[in-house]
C-alpha cells in the first residue's frame, strides 16, 4: 500500500496515465454534476461488503490519491479502520466509461498529526457548500429519527472560514490499481504499480502503453481494438511514475 | 439469508414497500437509460472489496429478488461462490435518491437444477440486445488482449431464440435489507426483514411506516422531515411481507 508521502514524491514527475484519463473523462462529463459521484466499497467487520455513493472532492495536493469527505460517525470510518482496503466504481455516463480504483483508505480526522493531511482536511472543509457543511452538525447519522431532534436539522451551517467541526473527516484513497473500461470502444486497460526489476512486465506493458495512448487520443475509430497490438519495442522505456498499463479483454 | 423459494412465497402477498419505492424511482428516472446501472460490491477471496457497474435486469418472476447477468468467467462469479454476501449501491440522478440493497448472490449457470431459475436465465438471455449477447462469446474477459483474438470480437451475435451460451449466467440478489435515502428531502429509511415475535420492533416501525408513506406519496413539501413522527398507534399492524421500515437520520 502506497503511503501518501511516497505518492507525493512520484507525483512530482508526470501524472500517471490513469489520472490523466480520469481528468479527461471528468472534463467530458462536466455537464452532469453527478459525474463526480462514485460508489465506494469497503468490508464490514463481519466480512460482508458495504457500498455507498460518495462525492469525489479532487486529487490530494501533490499526490495522485483521490479524496472524499465523511462524517466520523459514519459506518465507513469504523470499517476502514478495521480493513482499509477499498474499491471505487466510477461510471461516467456521457463517455460510457468506468473506472474501478483499488487502494487503501486513510481517514483524516480532527487532530491528525500529519500536517499536510490536516491542511487538506481544512481545505476540503472550506470548499464545502453551506448545505454540505450543515450535515456534519446534524443528529447522529443512522440512528432512528425522532421528533425531538428535528430542530437540529434546521440550524445554520457552520462557518467555512473556521476550523472544521469535529466530526468532519477527509478520506484519502491511496491508489494501488485502476481498471478502466470504455464501453463505446470495447477497450479495457488495467493499470498497476510496477514491481521493481520486473523487466518482463515492463516489456509486456510497452505494447499496451501504445494501445492505451491510442485510446486516450479520443474520438475513437469504432473500437475494433486492433491498433498497436504486438508492437513491443526492443528497448522498452519505463512507464510513467512506476505504473504499468496492460490492455485486456473487456 | 432468504432462499429464493421463501421470497417467492412472500411476494404472493403485496410487494414490500422498498420494491414499490424502487419501481416508482425507476419510472421517474426513465429518461436516463443508465438509471438501471447499479454498482455491485462483493468481497474478494483475499478479503478486499470489489465494486463494479452492472445493469439491473428486473425483478425475478414471482419474487422480490433483483436480477443481473454476468459471464461465468468473470471474477464476481468466483467471489460470490466463496462469499455470497453483496451490496448494491443504486444512485438515481433525476430524483436524487440512493438505494443500498444488501443480500446474498445466487449465480444461475448452464445446467442449474432449479427449473424456475433456469427458466429465468433463458428469459434474461432472450431479453438481451444483440450487442449484449455478443459479449458472452468474446475472448476471456480480463486476459491480456492479443492481436490473434481480434476477429473474435467481430463474430455475429448468438441467436436470442436458442439456448443461452454456456458462459451466460443469471445473477440473483436475494434481498435482506434496503437502506433508502432521498437527498432532496433529507430523508432516510431502513427496511429490514422482521424477526418473528419482535413486537417492539414492529411498534417502533409503525411510526416510521407512516413517515415512509408520507415520503412515498411523492412531490415532497421541502423535506423538513417532521411528518408522522412520534405517532405510534396503540395496536400496530404487522408490516407488509415481513418487512419493517424505520426512518433514521440521514
From TrEMBL, chains A, B:
Signal peptide: none
Domain of life: Eukaryota
InterPro entries: Pyridox_Oxase_Alr4036_FMN-bd, Split_barrel_FMN-bd
Short name of any one Pfam family annotated for the protein: Pyridox_oxase_2
Location of region: Disordered: 212-250
Record GO terms (molecular function): FMN binding
Limits of the Pyridoxamine 5'-phosphate oxidase Alr4036 family FMN-binding domain: 16-108
The protein's name: Pyridoxamine 5'-phosphate oxidase Alr4036 family FMN-binding domain-containing protein
Taxonomic classification: Eukaryota, Viridiplantae, Chlorophyta, core chlorophytes, Chlorophyceae
